């Protein structure tokens, strides 16, 4: 059974940093592209970024509005996906999901339960 | 960015057909595929993949769900609607980066 479990969320002050983790199990993590997606209450999900697999050199793609502030990375030895978030703003407040791609496709066949990030003073 | 437009809400009766639409401001077709996907999201839960590439049923999804469309106009159909189908339904395009989602159509029962 595919499982994705996010952690690392919480309350952070504006300008602060946070690192989210996503522990994956139930599939060969190293073979798949992975994404981070966020969603504010009542809003559409927003795709943030994805990281390709080793076969595709772990290259990354970012939504322009987070490029330079957020960094996606992965550890295939531990089956963990990361999201480093810097210079956080109030508008970054949202539920953050990690999601698995079916191979190199652009949709998401499994999502984690999500972790809440609140940016407030 | 490609913008996806959905109606905010739809009310249908149990056992009837629900048709949810998604319109894009750019063509999401490419080399014979339509890069449109559908998700179901219940309150407090993560989205769940229903349909990929416009018309392909995801694993474990009942055949009551179907998708069709091409170009800039897509529909998700649920027939017949069951009580458990009350949720918000989002479309998502992967034709171009950044991937974008529709704001969702909330399906309610009459």
Write out key terms for the chains shown:
heterodimer, A: 121 residues, mainly beta, seven-stranded mixed beta sheet, four-stranded antiparallel beta sheet, 11 strands, globular, B: 110 residues, 51% strand
Number of discrete helical segments of chain B: 0
So how many helices of chain A? 0
The rounded Rg of chain A comes to 14 Å
Category by helix and strand content of chain B: mainly beta
Instruction: Note the main sheet of chain A.
Output: 7 strands, mixed
Strand content of chain B: over 45%
Please indicate the percent range of residues of chain A in DSSP E strands (runs of 2 or more): over 45%
Listing every helix as H and every strand as E from the N terminus to the C terminus, the arrangement of chain B reads: EEEEEEEEEEEEE
The end-to-end span of chain A amounts to 40 Å
Element-by-element helix/strand order of chain A: EEEEEEEEEEE
Textual characterization of the structure:
The complex is a heterodimer of chains A (121) and B (110). Chain A has 121 residues and is mainly beta. In chain A, 0% of the residues lie in helices and 47% in strands. Chain A has no helices and eleven strands. In chain A, strands 2, 4, 5, 6, 9, 10 and 11 form a seven-stranded mixed beta sheet that branches. Chain A has a four-stranded antiparallel beta sheet with strand order 1-3-8-7, with no helix packed on it. In chain B, the strands form three sheets. In chain B, strands 2, 6, 7, 8, 11, 12 and 13 form a seven-stranded mixed beta sheet that branches. Chain B has a four-stranded antiparallel beta sheet with strand order 1-3-10-9, with no helix packed on it. Chain B has a two-stranded antiparallel sheet with strand order 4-5. In chain B, strand 6 and strand 7 form a beta hairpin. Chain A binds chain B through residues 43-47, 61-64, 97, 102, 105-114, and chain B through 4, 35, 37, 39, 45-49, 52-53, 58-59, 90, 92, 94-95, 97-104.
